[in-house]
Amino acid sequence: MGVDQMSARDRDSTGPELPADAAGRRVTCDGERATVRYVGPVPPTAGLWLGVEWDNPDRGKHDGSHDGVQYFTCRHPKGGSFVRPGKASFGIDYLTAVREFYKFDVEEAFKEEHSISSKTVECIGFEELRFEKLTVVSLSKRAVSGPGADGEIHKTTPNVQTLDLSENLLCCWDDVASITQHMHQLKELMLSHNKLRLPSDPGAQSHAFSSLKLLALTSCSLTWTQVLQCAPMWPQLEELCVSQNNITELQRPVDVLQSLKNLDLSSNPLVEDSVLRVAALPGLEKLNLSRTGLSVLRFDDVPPGCKSAMFPCLKSLILDHNNISEWSVVDELGKLQSLAALSCRSSGLVSSDGNPATTSQLLIAKLGQLAFLNRCEILPEDRRGAELDYIKMFGEEWLKAGGQRDAQQSRPSTQFTCQHPRYQSLIEKYGAPEEGELKKQQPFALKNQLIKVTFVFPDEADRKPIEKKLPASMVVQKVKGLLYRLLKIPAAELKLTYTSTKIVGKEIEIDSDLKTLGFFSIEDGDQLLVRWS
């Protein structure tokens, strides 16, 4: 039928008296939250029905129609149901929720007093006195739908600084403001998983959020346009989380959000070209763009190697779980003036040898100002090793592009300079790589190629060479593990070099346990020289 199945008694009963403004209100029914979209009859059945749109569309049965009549509409074709009023709860007010959640036994509180005194203790007002001390109130999932009696919040919980009203039954910003306007010290407000109608005059509600610094609006079905429409309510806001919403195209904030320091846009399907529209926020220090489908970032106001005027204060950028595959994006990040922390785990960036450690080293080398990568501090020795390896890794390409060990004659091509904006400054810092230090780049597709190598032991004349076929993608650490099984010498004591038929008479040091054989350009027929202390 489309109408939820009910008993005969339920069909004839309207249940408790409905609020006068039931349409548009939020309700719970059988543990699921919904918005009332229709109140009235649904012929041929008798009695009153509520047409609801479920937050979870899988709970629904239809699109708001029955027997060819459209009673209300839903965003999801199966997101609606009809339920009897007696099955729906319109929630409780804030004051009731506080008293229920933070209730205590007044008699127990005074037992000790009674035990040392025979006088009767007057308990009136004690409960309010206890609530008055609350600075943190957490009422997540408590079915809060409104404020309660006028003026009582100011008497009961006036000193709240952190308020969590996530996953409740608030239906509009006016309801929220009617609660927070009595909390003049409120700095942090969590409203995630609520569906809030926009206020008719957002600026008129700014007094209710005058001290607010942090606001969480995760999964509230918001667009960025709606966020900006609401923004005049939050004149002092510094941290805003709007992850998991319906945000696609960003617009530039004009005269709003100008005090923002931290913006979380994660898990929104962003139009990537629009990201730069928040670049002019003057104080933005941290930006979370993880899981946004991002593949490209460009700061075209300056050429490679220069600093952009965009995101002037941005210190921390999170790009985890995106579709970034071009290393040119990293070079663009090098244009940011203040970037000190970058997280790009599972972002799509892969080095030519397929080794995550090499990827991290490339990021460190390309972004000279980074202090933290993927939430780990970059130590001075990490930076030095990454930058030296970067020089060696692209040294052959640099020479072919016109680079010279004589700085006076060095003229690398514009194409090389655009692809490696920091390379020349690193040459000036460390010097040009020697011929034997150059590392030929290995295609990522060859990472599982087997190469034949011979282990030789120059300090052990009686020990015979050992020939092995190893994958080019094998890290040195695992090579040392193999040698431990063969020699019974602890891996920490092993020191490796190699010789190549292409570079006769020169040993090349294998100076990192986390790199692959392919990274060091070890090829079929090369010798690995094994020594230990």
What does this structure look like?
This protein is of the alpha/beta class and 533 residues long. Among the domains are: 8-87, SH3 type barrels; 91-247, Alpha-Beta Horseshoe (Leucine-rich repeat, LRR (right-handed beta-alpha superhelix)), CATH 3.80.10; 447-532, Phosphatidylinositol 3-kinase Catalytic Subunit, Chain A, domain 1 (Ubiquitin-like (UB roll)), CATH 3.10.20. It is built from 15 helices and 24 strands. The protein has helices spanning 8-12, 94-101, 106-109, 111-116, 126-132, 152-156, 173-180, 224-230, 328-333, 356-366, 380-393, 395-400, 414-419, 423-430, 476-487, and strands at residues 26-29, 32-40, 49-54, 65-66, 69-70, 80-83, 92-93, 136-138, 144-146, 162-164, 188-190, 214-216, 239-241, 262-264, 286-288, 316-318, 341-343, 372-373, 376-377, 450-456, 466-471, 494-500, 503-509, 527-532. The strands form five sheets. The protein has an eleven-stranded mixed β-sheet, covered by helices on one side. A five-stranded mixed β-sheet has the order 21-20-24-22-23, with no helix packed on it. α10 crosses α11 and α11 (380-393) packs across α14 (423-430). The longest helix is centred in the last third of the chain and has 14 residues, at 380-393. The model is unreliable at 4-14, 105-126 and 443-447 (pLDDT under 50).
